[in-house]
C-alpha cells in the first residue's frame, strides 16, 4: 500500500479517529499531541484558558476573564478576610460614587454586600486598592482617571480629618448623610422606579 509509509507509530500522536479505537493490548496513545498539550499548559499559565471550563466553553474565555470579579474582592465579599481587617473605615464619597455602578455590574445582592463591607472594620488603603483594580478589571463604567481622583479625594479627606482631630464629627456628618440617602432610596423602591441614575 502506498499510504503505509505515512502511518505514524503508535507512540506518536495519532488522529482523533485512531485515538478513539486503540488496538487491543497496545499502549494507549496520548490523549492529545504533545505540542497541543504544551500549548494548553502555556495558555493556562498565562491565564487565558480557565482551568475549570469545559471545551465547549473555552471560546468564551476572553469575555469571561474580562468580566470576572478579582479573587481578592470575592474573598472579602464571602467573608474570608474579614477576621484580618481591624481598622475602622468611615463611610465616604467612594460609596456614593460607586454604589450604582456596583449594582449595575454585580446585581442588587452583591451591591448590598459591598455596602456592608464599606461599613465594616476594613483598612482604607485596601479598599482604595481594590476599588482601583475593579475600575479596570471588572469594567465598572468609569475611567482609571476618575478612580484615581476618587481615591485621592478620600485620602486627603481622611488625612485632613486626622490632622484637625475632627474625625468623629466628620464620621457623624457622613453617617447622617447616608441615613438620608438610604431613606430616599427606600422611597424610590416603593415607587417601583428602576432608573440607575436615581441612586445618585
Report on this structure.
The protein is mostly helical and 200 residues long. Helices cover 58% and strands 0% of the residues. The chain contains nine helices and no strands. The protein has helices at 16-20, 34-46, 61-67, 71-77, 93-106, 108-119, 124-137, 144-163, 167-190. The radius of gyration is 27 Å and the shape is flat.
**First-last Cα distance:** 78 Å
Count of discrete domains: 2
Radius of gyration: 27 Å
| Class per helix and strand makeup | mainly alpha
What key phrases describe this protein's structure?
200 residues; mainly alpha; 2 domains; 9 helices; flat; disordered C terminus; DVA-1_sf
Architecture blueprint of SSEs:
Layout lengths: L15 H5 L13 H13 L14 H7 L3 H7 L15 H14 L1 H12 L4 H14 L6 H20 L3 H24 L10
Short description:
The chain has 9 helices and no strands.
Amino acid at each position: 500500500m502506498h499510504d503505509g509509509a505515512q502511518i505514524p507509530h503508535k507512540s506518536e500522536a495519532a488522529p482523533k479517529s485512531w485515538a478513539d479505537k486503540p488496538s487491543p493490548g497496545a499502549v494507549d496513545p496520548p490523549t492529545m499531541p504533545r505540542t497541543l498539550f504544551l500549548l494548553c499548559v502555556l495558555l493556562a499559565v498565562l491565564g487565558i484558558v480557565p482551568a475549570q471550563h469545559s471545551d465547549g466553553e473555552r471560546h468564551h474565555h476572553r469575555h469571561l476573564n474580562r468580566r470576572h470579579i478579582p479573587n481578592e474582592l470575592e474573598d472579602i465579599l464571602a467573608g474570608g478576610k474579614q477576621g484580618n481587617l481591624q481598622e475602622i473605615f468611615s463611610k465616604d464619597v467612594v460609596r456614593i460614587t460607586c454604589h450604582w455602578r456596583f449594582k449595575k455590574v454585580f446585581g442588587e445582592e452583591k451591591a448590598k454586600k459591598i455596602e456592608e463591607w464599606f461599613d465594616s472594620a476594613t483598612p482604607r488603603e485596601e479598599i482604595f486598592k481594590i476599588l482601583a483594580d475593579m475600575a479596570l478589571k471588572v469594567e465598572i463604567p468609569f475611567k482609571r482617571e476618575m478612580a484615581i481622583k476618587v481615591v485621592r479625594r478620600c485620602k486627603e479627606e481622611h488625612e485632613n480629618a486626622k490632622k484637625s482631630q475632627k474625625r468623629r464629627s466628620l464620621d457623624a456628618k457622613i453617617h447622617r448623610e447616608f441615613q438620608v440617602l438610604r431613606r430616599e432610596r427606600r422611597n424610590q423602591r416603593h415607587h417601583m422606579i428602576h432608573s440607575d441614575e436615581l441612586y445618585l
